[in-house]
């Protein structure tokens, strides 16, 4: 969505006629206004045929279609682009609309006329996205219309690469309702212009909780209880683990004592003389000196 911001006064007289009438006017009243503005029966007859655009005055006789116009922000606004226009109804007022046609006279000196479908900004935010809502001016009491999220990702379009279509398909939202739209106030493109054109009450930050201090105190109380429960659980687990280790250690010591005997527990073996060792077959009789040295080193 492209948001442009441009002024209506620089356009000539036909541009002042390109506006939406108030809701509730009948076709006869619209045609009478057309006659007052245009004063040309040919144009009035033409408007009768193209009156499918709601409440839109179009004077396209002997005029050429224009692809795009440039807004004050430098954006290129085409048919279907969203724009905020200053000076349509009031000098300082800003109206939101969608471009339905861009027309220019055959001569270069003639002005360019932009046909808009005007939308009204509601005073209530979207119930889900919490962003301003645009409603068609034809809908009665558009300020209180409840917006339903009926859009689904059922549409597909080809991705563009270097201004050429590719074979890659991209899922897009299929907007099933053309009378309600949501202004994306979280977008980065022309964010300053969007905020400048909207009512400050619709974009000011809103607290998540009315009483912030009470909410923090309740959350702190809950978290303190949770931390205390965690500490108690950890302390109980440590005591149980230590008790299990003590029991397992005592049982292991008893098993070792029963299986290995007292020598395993560090009982000193009685000293044996070389002769006794030779008779016992511990050392060979041919080398008693080395046996004595080994015995001495072992005792040390």
Please give a structural write-up.
The structure is a single chain. A hairpin with a 5-residue loop joins β3 and β4. This protein is of the alpha+beta class. The strands form 3 sheets. Strands 1, 2, 5, 6, 7, 8 and 11 form a 7-stranded mixed β-sheet that branches. The protein has a two-stranded antiparallel sheet with strand order 3-4. The protein has a two-stranded antiparallel ribbon with strand order 9-10. It is about 35% helix and about 25% strand. The N terminus is likely disordered. The radius of gyration is 45 Å and the shape is elongated. It folds into 3 domains: about 160 residues, no CATH class; about 55 residues; about 30 residues, no CATH class.
Question: Topology of this protein?
Answer:
Blueprint: E1 3-7, H1 13-17, H2 27-38, H3 41-49, E2 63-65, E3 68-70, E4 76-78, E5 82-86, E6 94-105, E7 112-125, E8 132-136, E9 152-161, E10 164-174, E11 180-182, H4 191-197, H5 200-203, H6 212-260, H7 274-280, H8 288-299
Parallel strand pairs: 1-5
Antiparallel strand pairs: 2-6, 3-4, 5-6, 6-7, 7-8, 8-11, 9-10
Helix pairs in contact: 2-3
């Amino acid at each position: 969505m492209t948001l442009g911001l441009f002024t209506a006064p620089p356009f000539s007289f036909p541009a002042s006629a390109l506006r939406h009438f108030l809701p509730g006017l009948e076709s006869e009243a619209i045609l009478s206004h057309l006659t007052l503005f245009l004063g040309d029966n040919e144009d009035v007859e033409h408007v009768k045929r193209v009156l499918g655009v709601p409440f839109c005055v179009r004077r396209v006789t002997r005029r050429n279609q224009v692809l795009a116009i440039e807004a004050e922000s430098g954006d290129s606004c085409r048919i279907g682009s969203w724009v905020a226009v200053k000076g349509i109804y009031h000098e300082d007022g800003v109206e939101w609309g969608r471009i339905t046609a861009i027309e220019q006279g055959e001569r270069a000196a003639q002005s360019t006329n932009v046909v808009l479908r005007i939308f009204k900004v509601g005073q209530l935010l979207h119930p889900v996205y919490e962003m301003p809502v645009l409603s068609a001016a034809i809908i009665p009491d558009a300020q209180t219309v409840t917006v339903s999220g009926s859009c689904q990702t059922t549409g597909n379009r080809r991705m563009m690469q270097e201004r050429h279509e590719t074979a890659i398909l991209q899922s897009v939202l299929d907007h099933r309702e053309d009378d309600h739209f949501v202004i994306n106030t979280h977008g980065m493109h022309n964010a300053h212009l969007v905020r400048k054109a909207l009512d400050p009450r619709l974009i000011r930050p809103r607290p998540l909780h009315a009483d912030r201090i009470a909410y923090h105190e309740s959350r702190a109380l809950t978290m303190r209880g949770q931390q205390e429960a965690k500490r108690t659980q950890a302390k109980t687990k440590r005591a149980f683990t230590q008790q299990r280790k003590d029991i397992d250690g005592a049982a292991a010591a008893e098993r070792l004592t029963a299986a290995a005997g007292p020598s395993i527990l560090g009982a000193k073996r009685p000293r044996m003389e070389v002769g006794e060792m030779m008779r016992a077959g511990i050392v060979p009789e041919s080398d008693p000196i080395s046996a004595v040295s080994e015995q001495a080193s072992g005792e040390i």
